[in-house]
Structure formats: C-alpha cells, structure tokens
Amino acid sequence: DAGVIQSPRHEVTEMGQEVTLRCKPISGHNSLFWYRQTMMRGLELLIYFNNNVPIDDSGMPEDRFSAKMPNASFSTLKIQPSEPRDSAVYFCASSFNEKLFFGSGTQLSVL
Amino acid sequence: AQSVTQPDIHITVSEGASLELRCNYSYGATPYLFWYVQSPGQGLQLLLKYFSGDTLVQGIKGFEAEFKRSQSSFNLRKPSVHWSDAAEYFCAVGPPGSARQLTFGSGTQLTVLP
Q1: Which residues contact A106 (CB under 8 A, 6 or more apart)?
Q2: What would the mean pLDDT of B94-98 be, rounded to a whole number?
C-alpha cells in the first residue's frame, strides 16, 4: 500500500487566495483526520471524519476553513480566503485499529 | 482533561549510546499511549503503542517503551542509537477506542553525534 497520499507537498500563495489541500487515505481505513502543525501550537486536530461523515470539526479555527470527504478515497481541506497566519504544515491521517497513519504533509506558506 | 508532557525539547546523544525520552501524561484511567517519530519533511510514523497487558512494549527500529502507572509515565528507550534515529519524537495519549481524541506532546528533537 502506498500509504496516505497528500498533495501538493508544498504550496505558496498570496493572502486572500483560495487554497485546497488534498488527501487520499489508505484503502480500508474508515476514519480520516486533518491536523495542523506549527512551532507555536504543535500538532492540532482540525477535523475528523468517520465513514466519510464529519464527526468533529471543533478544531477548525474559523469559517474560512472547510473540509469535505465525498467518498472513502478522497478528502479536501480548503482555506478561503487564506491569511499569513495559516502558514503551517497540514497533515492528513487515516486510522485502523486505533493507530494513525500520517501522510507526508503539505507545507503551506501564505505570503 | 488529558495532557501529555515531554520535558525535554532537545536531546543530543552520541551514536551507539543509549537513549531515553521522557513522557508524562495526565489521564483519569488507563489510557492508550503511543510514540510517533517524525523525520524531516515527513509525516509521523508509529513506533509503538500501549493498549493493555505487558507494560513493556516493543516497537519498530529497536525501540521499546515502559508504561508505569504509578509514575504516569511512558518513556521511550533504545539501547544503542543509530545516526538514522535523528528525528523528532512525539508521545501521545488518548482514551481507549477513540483515536480522534489523541493528545500529542510537544515533541523531543533528537540529535545524534557521530
């Protein structure tokens, strides 16, 4: 299995632009997580899906952030409009038997 | 509320030396405990986990960890460190059966000297 696949690996954009991050979880995993990692706040859970349904989005910082999971093999995290303080590494993870499997992350820089 | 403390922000060891990374947690009952490793530019990879049973758990890459309920600790150890072990290590705690409620520590950066 190729593991959790995220794209793009790096994204540089200007403030106010829309950003879409993509994730393909491991086949057969029924839970998907979006995390954000920064030096200041460490690893934070943004949103959690179970069987493609958003269960807990309490970690989504603002309405500018939205996430979808249209099917079991694809999820997106969108930021619109983006701001410099959104600069971070965004990780997608899927889980099996309570173990998380992380993608390599998207390094987002908002100028 | 659950919490995790990794007291050491940065540890430096020589290659071949032993390693112990500390992790203390706060949780009302026996939690699920994890150690993850993050290499530069990569996502977190699971090293080992404790759910129940034997308090000494073995993981990948020669790592082990011991759950000590009396000390609320789950320290990670390796008898002989290799240069490729240089990375950041995260301890995580969560309630049984709920991966979405994992709390991660702030991480310990490991540097390995030749």
Answers
A1: A6, A7, A8, A9, A10, A11, A21, A89, A90, A91
A2: 82
